[in-house]
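dumping this here before i forget
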Amino acid sequence: MTHTCDAIVVGAGLNGAATAFFLARKGIGRIVIVDSGMVGAGASGAAVGLLRSHYDNRPETELAVKSLTFFRNWHEAVGGDCGWMPTGFFRFVEPEEISKMEANVAVQRALGETVQILDISEARRIAPQFSFNGIGAVVYEPGSGTADNHEATVSMLRRACAHGAELWPFTRATAIEVEAGRVTGLMTDRGRIASPLIVLAAGLGSKDLAALCGIKLPLVEKTIRVAEILPPETVQLSVSYMDPVSDSWITPRCQGRAIVAVPPAHAADSVAEFSRTDAERSLPPVARRLPGIENSIVVRWWARADCYAPDGKPLIGGIDGVDGLFINTAGAGKGHKVAPAAGMALSELIVDSKATIADITPFCLTRFDAELRPWSDTEYSKRVIG
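structure:
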C-alpha cells in the first residue's frame, strides 16, 4: 500500500521533532514522521539538557542563542512544557585562553545574549561552593539553564500533529526512492510513502539510508554516558558548569538532583551497559570543582549512541545531487542546545529557499569536500561535551 504526503521526517528525536514542528507551522501540508522506535529513544532521550550559548565559533553561537529564546519561552513559542529550569551557567577558562574567551563573549553579546566575564573573586561571590583552582576567568550566563529533552521532543511532536502531521513510531525506513535526481518516496516496513521531500534526522540511521541512494555522510558513532546523582545536603548546587581543566561538567535537575558525565572505563568507547561503580567514578573530577559532591548517591545511569561529524559540528541543509533530500543530524552530544533554531532554519530553507533565523550555510555537507579548518581563530584547545 502506498501512502502520500508532502514531507517525510525520518527520526522522532528532538531535531526531527523541531523540523517537523516548524514545517507544519509553515503550512507545508501533510507530514509523516517516521521512527524505528519510540519517540526520543536515542540520543535525545540520553542527553542531559544543559543549555548554554557560549561556543568558540559564530555559527554554533547563533543557533544556540536563538534556541535559548525558545526554551525560555516554551509555552508561548511552542506549546506544552520542556522542563525548563533557569540555573545560570559557568564556563571555566584557562589563563592562557582568556583572550579567546573575550572574543567569543563579544560574539554572544553581538547576538543579543546577556553574558558576563568574571574574575575568580566575582565568580566566588556568585557560587562560593566552587573551587576555582587553575582557572583564569569564568564566562557567566545568568539566563541559561537546563531542560528535559524528552518533554521538549514530545511537546514539539504534539504541536506538529496538531498542525496535521502524522507520527509513525516503530516504523523502519528501508530505502529512499530517487528518480532523475529527485526524491520520490520512502520505503518502510509498513509500506511505501510517496513524497517529494525527505528530511534525515535519524542520527547514524541517516548515514545508512543516504548510502542506499549513493550519498556518503561522514558520520561516526560515539557514546553519551551520564549519571543522575543526589548530592548531599551540604553541597549547594546553584549553577551549571563546564570545565576543561578537570574535564567535567554538572547541571542541576529537579528534586535536588543533578546530571554528570561518566568517562568510559576503557579507551574503547562502547554503548554497553555500565555499572553503578563505573558511574561513581565520575564523581572525583566533579569534586575538584564542587568539594563534597563525591559523597553523592548515584540514582541512575545510562548510555546512548550519538552521531558525530568529523569536525564535531552539526549537519544541516540540503544534499547536493538529490533534489528534495535534506539533513538535520550530527548533534555530537549538544544537538539539543541548537535544535529549535536548527529546525526552524531548515524549514525556512525548505519552504522559503532561505534561512532567516540563523545562517546555516556553514553546516552544509559540502564543507567536507575541502580540507577541514578551524571554524574560528578563537577555538579553545580543549573540548568539554555538555
